[in-house]
Amino acid sequence: MSSVQFATLYAGRLLLGISNGFYLTYSATYLGEIAPTHLRGSAVGLVTFQTSFGALIGVLVDNYTTKYQSRTSYLIPLGVMFFVPVFLSIGLIFLPESPRHYIRLGSDVKAEHALRTLRGIKDHSQLMAEVAAIREAWMLENAHSENIRLVDAFRGTNLKRTLLSLCCSIGQTASGVIFFSSFSIYFYAEAGVKNEFVWVMMSLAIALTGNMGAFFVMRLIERRVLLSICSIVNALIMFAIAGVYTRLSTGSYTAAQVLVAMGTLFTWVYGIGQGPVLWALTVELPSQRLRSKTVGLATGCNYIFAWVATYCSPYFINPTAMNWGPKYCYIWGASNLVLGMWALRVIPDVKGKSLEQITGSMIGQPEKNADDTVAASG
Description:
Elements: H1 6-34, H2 37-65, H3 72-80, H4 83-92, H5 99-104, H6 108-119, H7 124-141, H8 157-174, H9 177-190, H10 196-217, H11 223-247, H12 253-284, H13 291-317, H14 329-346, H15 355-362, H16 370-377
Organism: Penicillium daleae
Membrane topology: Multi-pass membrane protein
Keywords: Membrane, Transmembrane, Transmembrane helix
């Protein structure tokens, strides 16, 4: 904000990218480790709500600062972004550490205190049962290796869990949401949609209702089923957009209406199913000892694929290049179809299972869940 030098602006952007990478990795991991079993998927899925709400605020501020012809046009949007990290930094002071982190450090007493604070459990026997279940899973995973190394994520039973987590994270880009979020305003403008900023804001606002609905839907529908259904629906939406623009001209009023309607429906379906489920699975599937490393690796791989999609998209849709325009959605329709079929056939059933149960099922151990005891009496 203080400089107009190109190198300084890039340095600032680099710092923002690093902080965002840490935030997405550890916020999702933290939510996954502190939430009770029946709320874990819904809680982690709220990461999608965070990004959608932030995007809505960003577009809203950008829309009303475009009238300024000075540096104010971008200084105001950048200044607004200070509020969130300041608020989070203060709030984090009052949050306890994850009980699973304390187990990793060998401090059962602190883990018990963290559980009491997070869950409001007062019965000492219930607390001890949950701490014991977490410790047992931790010891089981450390039976073959005491040191935690990233290479362990690609060995033995961890290999399957790591690959599933990586694929779920990359699925965020495969859904086409990166394309829509990055190029929706330009996309609408090229398609002849008037007041494109307003339509994008309306689309994001409607998507937020899907994000909020996901909190309840994920408690009712199995993860892979919900992901498969939403992916297939969004594949049909993408094919519909591309099909309309194959038959009609880019400047057609009817085609523009279809684009806005289908684009809005796409973001809503993504918000209620694909985004929350993919985030939840990315966090739930890795082993306890390698979770933060695996989630970080998965998020990084998704960033690479997102960069590739962002880099290639202008060449497909720009009139001076390949000039596909909205017909580019054929590619994203196909990727959504593949994602839906893959989810139904490959993703394991983790709904209603604690992180320790998931670990047990992955390595062929009997399932145990202290959460069941807590939930039954709570």
